[in-house]
Amino acid sequence: METLLILTKFWGWYLLIFFALLSLKPLRIKQIFQDLKDEKFRFTVSFLAIIIGLVNILLYNVWEPSWSFLITAFGWIALFIGLALFVIPQATVKLLIKLNVKFVQVVYTLLFLIGIFLLNMAYEVVPY
């Protein structure tokens, strides 16, 4: 259970910080997608995503119908995005750009709400 708590705090804080940074500097979103066209940047990002995904999966990979499945899902999503950026970079970048343009408001709002939810589950501010 300790591992779940640590990963819940990690993903909750990560999502909130990511949301705050991109809300304060929205031009960073375009910059990130421009940088993904650079092979060195893309390799670094894919390498980090693979590491974060693998560590997450190795530490917590529980497939049960509860809120904790979010932690498992984030690990697998990070791993798949990292592998896709490494194996099929151009197609992955095009897909990410297409999804970002169409759903940017929805995605970032959803990530913010999930971050709040995870931090609430970790710190038990509002009883669940």
Classify the helix fraction into a percent range.
over 70%
Mean pLDDT: 92
How large is the share of residues in beta strands?
under 5%
For the report, how would you describe the main beta sheet? none
Tell me the domain tally.
1
Low-confidence stretches: none
User: What general outline do the C-alpha atoms trace?
Assistant: globular
| Tally of strands | 0
- Helix/strand/pairing category: mainly alpha
Rg (CA only): 15 Å
Total helix count? 5
SSE run: HHHHH
Distance between the termini: 17 Å
In brief:
The protein has 128 residues and is mainly α. It has helices spanning 2-24, 27-35, 39-59, 69-87, 89-123.
What does this structure look like?
The protein is an all-alpha fold. It has one domain (2-123). It is built from 5 helices and no strands. Helix 1 packs across helix 5 (89-123), helix 3 packs antiparallel against helix 4 and helix 4 (69-87) packs antiparallel against helix 5. The longest helix is centred in the last third of the chain and has 35 residues, at 89-123. It is globular, with a radius of gyration of 15 Å. The mean pLDDT is 92.
